[in-house]
Amino acid sequence: MSQSSAPPTAAIRRPATTPMRLGAFVNDATVRAIFYQAVTFAAVVGLIWYLVSNTIANMATRGMSAGFDFLDVSAGFNIAFTLIPYREGDSYLRVFQVGIANTLLVAVIGIVFASALGLVVGLARLSTNWLIRTLARWYVEVLRNTPLLLQIIAWYFGVFNLLPRPRESIALGGFMWLNNRGAYFPAPVPQDGFETVLGALALAVGAAIAVSVWARRRLRETGRAFPAGLVGFALVAGVPLLVYLALGAPLGWNWPALRGFNFVGGFSVPPAFCALVVALSIYTSCFIAEIVRAGIQSVGHGQTEAARALGVKPSRTMRFIILPQAMRVIIPPLISQYLNLTKNSSLAIAIGFPDLVSVWMNTSLNQSGRAIPIVAMTMGFYCVVSLIVSFALNAYNRRILLRER
Amino acid sequence: MKMGVSLLMAAAAMLGLSGAASAQQTLEQVRSRGNLNCQVGLPTPGFYALAANGTWSGMDVDMCRAVAAAIFNDPSKVQYQSVTSAVRFTSLANGESDMLSRTTTWTAVRDGQLGLEFAGVNFYDGQGFVVPRSSGITSARQLDGATVCVLTGTTTELNLADYFRANNMRFTAVTNENVNVLVETYLGGGCDAYTNDKSGLAARRSAFPTPNDHVILPETISKEPLGPVVRHGDNNWGDIVRWVLFGMIEAEEMGVSSANVTQMLQSPNPGIKRLLGTEGNVGQGMGLPADFMVRVLRHVGNYGEVYERNVGANTPIGIPRERSLNALWTNGGILYPMPFR
Amino acid sequence: MSDATRPEPLVFAPKPADPPPPSSIGAVGWMRANLFSSVPNALLTFLGAWILYVTVAAVLDWALVKAVWEAENRRQCLDMVGRAGACWPGVAAWIPNLIYGLYPKDQAWRIDLGAVLLVAWALPLWLPRVRSKVAIGLCLVLLFPLLASYLFMGGAKGVVWTAAIALGLAAFLWCWLTALAEMRRGISFGALMARLLGARDDARAARIGQASLLALYLVALALVLPLELVEVPTRLWGGLFLTLVISGIGITFSLPAGVLLALGRRSEMPLIRVFCVTFIELFRSVPLITILFMFNTMLPLFLPAGVEVNRLLRAIVAVCLFASAYMAEIVRGGLQAIPKGQYEAAAAMGLGFWQSTGFIILPQALRIMIPSIVGNFIGLFKDTTLVSIIGLFDLLSMSRAVGEDTRWLGLFIEPFFFITMIYFVFCFLMSQYSINLERRLGAGQRR
Fold first, then answer.
1. pTM for the model
2. Chain C neighbours among B 67-126 (CB < 8 Å)?
């Protein structure tokens, strides 16, 4: 657009002294631009005004309320899984917060699993083993081509609802139990002095970052490598552990125990959560796998050959030559997949996991009947998340663009 | 955007965007449209069931048919709008439906705050639990710490929370808006109990692989007066729906049914005469003809017929009526129509 | 080896290569190379085979081996196999509904006819030697909806409607006549008529061409006039039919709207750019389910009191706006992929904005975009499952209704499995087509 609209008009524009004829006026790009914009502006503002005035009039005649006063009212229903504390007597505003926390939890865990799985499947797509390559291809084809809503339900009924009952729970490594009511873990209970451990952890992370920055600079200046990763890991893992032991292990555990109908205590997630996270991760991993594959294939084969000719080890070729170049292709679509995953978590409604849409736009709307503020708040949340991520992505894009020569 | 709007307009014109009169006079709108927009829920046996040939039937569907019969003398002039429970009140409030007949519990908040008006009660229900027989549970009081499957977006969800709070018990809810999902979850052992209105529990239990392995607990933990709902602000329309319902109950009390309504026109009983419009004119004030109840009874039948046809003991739903709340007040129930005079 | 017979000049003749060792050819060799080339690879192979066996065997056991194929109601199924096997008769009884929704079954031929018309109309696009493919494609996209909407909706048709339907029919006839004429004679229908009627000069030929089009329209009008179809209100639409209608309209609308939005986003006019960016970002940032919800509950409030918009239209509007925002980003990607030289060359030729966009940039960009457009369509097709949440009887809602039928009460997994298969078959075919297309389109650019 920028390249195409300007040139012809430059010739037409006349010196200011000659009176401007109508034709020239019409053909003047600036005038036309102003005209187009004025028309669009008028149309959009007119449309919005029309819709808003109609809405106000309709709501008045039908006795509907758009106010936010219901937010203080006690909600009165139980929420099956809450990341932040919630009781039946809490207000609708609290329900909104619970919904946001649950949605973000699903999104974050889903993104981690989807990335890992996507990377594995993407590499499997390029595997030399025919069976693995074919399996990976069918994995992608089958899962990408069925609606996610159906997959979530399938995971819920096909797997998590078929797990054994609480009395026959599957014990995983003695610290995790799986049954058809959910997954149960011991919950950490911080005691006095645990803040110091956390402080030590923060310091160690800072130190590890400093070491890696220093190591990179030394590599650039002197060419000598320093095992920054290993040292960093030792710092992050070792220092807090030492502090923790020195303070006499100030962390208790609340172990889940089988009592009555089910496990009591500890930290647990319902099967709907597991089904949702698994379905979202697997579905998104198909798209991520394709992105990873395309990214790696986008790096010319000559790069690998050149690296090999220079005697770079294969593991280092992947890490220092292929991946940095592939990342440039991978990151933008990857972020949009992350956003998709977050948005898709709204399908939790199908299996009743209390995410924002399910607990807010469905249950709360149903119980309170306040459609307009509730729908607006839901959309507002997704908009905000999406905008933040978009800004971050654009900033990143600009950074990698600048490096291009 | 501009293009969007013009295309939208074109599409709207194409798909039959019709203008109607003011929002106030529902009866006139219904008459000019030529049919009743009656909102029912997603298909549910007994109350608004959808058969494979596309026809609707059930208690609540018969309520719609009765109103249509009173207005048009033709019970088929109903457009059924099957709507999820999440948007049922908005769909009524925004003018999409003329009435809502879908097992909706009459509550103060709904009546007072959502711009709705309940026209009466056509079914008294109450919430109960079903549990596996093998669990050995015999009372809802033993459910402390249990996982309970519950339909979301309904009063059942609130009642469940209230009941456990009142009895100082804890529970975990497994919620969904699809009964079949909940039933599958329950059958798969995903919850210790399944709760819903008792009217539905028996029917669902009969469709379990082995119905006798499951028991319905004796407790009824809530009052669920279910009835048709109309929009606030059009009192006349509310009267029509209300008196069609009362008329059907009154007819049963007086022994007038679809089978004998023609003979009953000759009845000397003044109560029957008023009901059938051969004496006085109850319908006049509501904008209905004097014989509107004759139309209703001829096409749809009295309350007892509707009940037995849809949820009675001889149907798959099989809810016995004797001595239940839904029996007439003369038979030990609480169905008590207001005097038809 | 013919050179070997001649003594001069001496040519190097390589000794024939040894045959490959038996372990590297045939099935064994293939397996060694592809499955068991190393120990980890062999382990992976066994792991993969095991996963494949476990999942496929479990599904087949339920869906085929233990399944019940004949029963009166679900009770019988349950008495026979319990929940270990599928109960297919319930799904079979509802298949017409799963495909046509609540559409009156004696009218279902109209949907079939619509589908046949669509395929027949699109067929010339794949036939060899047909040159007017752009015109046929445009006709299909713009005029098929006219014909189809009357076919599906029926009811009274006014003067305008009759004219529009006739236009649709005439366009269909024209497309096939042109396709046939071009295949047999290599000239379009109008030109063929002119030649048959012996036109002497170009002006007369053009006039005969126009006259033949008019005649075609009159024929179509004569065909349409006596046609009377019973009205089928949109609330009876459902099943696969509805799913296809919604996604079809969504994709058709989103293409031009997406192009406009993408152009607007790249515009130099700040206000237009701001509007377009806001629109695109807003609709892309929220889940479709919230948009559907919003349009379903709010659209009746947006419009003046008394104006009724039916539920299907509300869903379609929501899907169209949503799809447009996504399409806009695809088009933007396509526009960005066009080298700057193309823009500059067009400007140097003195082409204005619309000319250069319409004749130079978009045709190239669209070709690059086709695979993404198909991908978008697949996404939209899958996303239409969400309209069930606002209470339209699409494929998913219809499958839910099976389990609420008194005879088949509780039948939930089977219809669900069945529609999953339907979705998969449709999406898989489309995605294979898109891959195929990508390969063919890429062929010209590969060196």
1. 0.81
2. 79-84, 86-87, 90-91, 94-96
